[in-house]
Amino acid sequence: QKEVEQDPGPLSVPEGAIVSLNCTYSNSAFQYFMWYRQYSRKGPELLMYTYSSGNKEDGRFTAQVDKSSKYISLFIRDSQPSDSATYLCAMRESGGGADGLTFGKGTHLIIQP
Amino acid sequence: GAGVSQTPSNKVTEKGKYVELRCDPISGHTALYWYRQSLGQGPEFLIYFQGTGAADDSGLPNDRFFAVRPEGSVSTLKIQRTERGDSAVYLCASSFSRGETQYFGPGTRLLVL
User: Does the domain made of A4-112 have the CATH classification 2.60.40.10?
Assistant: First the structure.
């Protein structure tokens, strides 16, 4: 079992729908949680950054972290065709832990006009 | 300001050859990371530099892979005796300091024939 599990999709939804993306993880040392968006043939771009458990909202995006369940989510409201991309969850340990990010496989999201 | 840049964008080589991949981090960023992203997978951590030194090289797959950052800015990832399994996108990221947000470059697509 990989440290971070993420359904690769593809996930196809109509424009305007609410999108829910999620990841589960097994390493309880993870304290920092990120969502990156990656367009085809581009590098990952940071969308959301959360420390420990809780919610964070930024425009149409909301990130949730539930450390007790080892489960994180990203919600996209009023989805647009330009949101079509691969969404990667990423995690990192705190303090003196590993410095590299541990990523999920990424979920390929398609927003149909 | 300018983001992380990587050269070349694409590299095609033959099995057994030596390749060098270059990363120019964001100016002023002291931390630099290399990741490898295989098709359909999330990025996998290779190595982390703090300044000129490799602080964590636990992700390098074997001794054919080596990276340097002699002046604490530009970094070069070196792969000796390339194998077909080395074909992937090699991503570089930088952050202001250890533990801060990582910003990714566009990657170098390496194809080993």
Answer: yes
